[in-house]
Amino acid sequence: MLDVSDLHVFYGEIHALKGISLSVGTGEIVALLGPNGAGKTTTVKTISGLIAPRSGRIDLEGGALAGVPAHEIVYRGVAHAPEGRRIFNRLSVVENLEMGAYTRHDGRITADIERVFTLFPRLRERHTQVAGTLSGGEQQMLAIGRALMANPRLLLLDEPSMGLAPVVVEQIFDTIREVNRQGTTILLVEQNAAMALEIAHRGYVLETGTVVLTGTATDLAANTDVRRAYLGE
After folding, report:
1. Residue 124 contacts by C-beta under 8 Å, 6 or more apart in sequence?
2. If residue 56 lies in a helix (H) or strand (E), which one and from where to where?
3. What is the pLDDT of residue 164?
4. 66 Cβ contact list (under 8 Å, min separation 6)
5. 150 Cα distance to chain centroid
6. Is residue 183 part of a domain?
7. What is the per-residue pLDDT across 121-158, written as a single tens digit (0 to 9) for each?
């Protein structure tokens, strides 16, 4: 579904991504792992059109994405739940979900709001509440739900567990697995490598803007270097 080839991204003179190549097949969950500053967030921002690459290719189902405006990439079937959630704090839960569907003109928006409420029952309980007053976990649920309202074929999730209590992290990851089971392909950026590798099919490890390791989730979880660096062993 997604093919990224020899991607180079700069921040001014800083060479942030140094020839990254990766792929995500239809129906997969692919984890993007690595320490702070490795280039994980830059990678998903570039895929979603928020950052323009200096060179390289990004192809979605055979169509080029590099250089395409971010809003057009949403129309093409890619949604991004960003690091830090970035919800609309002054809007209600339902209004945030409706904003996620801004590209759509079909008759299934109400049904998809119901789908989000089924995935995240807490949001149903809070549906009229102002989003900025939600807990951190509820805001993360809303960020994912808002992205799902674009009805994406490919969902980019950037650090969905950041700052959340372990019990909430479990709920979030259970829901990510269910979203994938329902047919959405997922590229998951996550510092919680143990949780990410539990639900992913494959993974890539980034360090200082390069891919240093790739493999199945099972192989990465068993890798000595990964276990020592990311799994606390």
Report:
1. 117
2. strand 55-60
3. 83
4. 52, 53, 56, 57, 58
5. 13
6. yes
7. 999 999 999 999 999 999 999 999 999 999 999 999 99
Q: Tens digits of per-residue pLDDT, 60-114?
A: 998 999 889 999 999 999 999 998 788 999 999 999 999 999 888 888 999 999 9
- 3-state helix, strand and coil shares in percent for the chain, rounded to the nearest 5: 40, 25, 35
In this structure, which amino acid lies at residue 7?
A: L
Helix (H) or strand (E) run with residue 22 in it:
strand 14-24
> What residues does 33 pair with on adjacent strands?
205
212 located within any domain: no
Interval 26-33 mean pLDDT: 97
Q: Are strands 185-189 and 154-158 parallel, antiparallel or unpaired?
A: parallel
The structure tokens 């809303």 sit at 142
Report whether pLDDT(233) > 60: no
Distance CA 104, CA 107 (A): 9
* Element at 139 (helix H, strand E): helix 136-148
Is 20 part of any domain?
yes
**Angle 109-119/93-100 helices, nearest 10 degrees?**
120
Residue-wise burial string across 34-46, b where 16 or more C-beta atoms lie within 10 A, e elsewhere: beeebbbbbbbbb
> For residue 211, is it within any domain?
no
Domain boundaries, position 29: 2-206+218-230
The CATH number of the domain holding residue 96 is 3.40.50.300
Helix axes 166-181, 136-148, angle to 10 degrees: 10
Count up the domains in the chain and report the number. Answer: 1
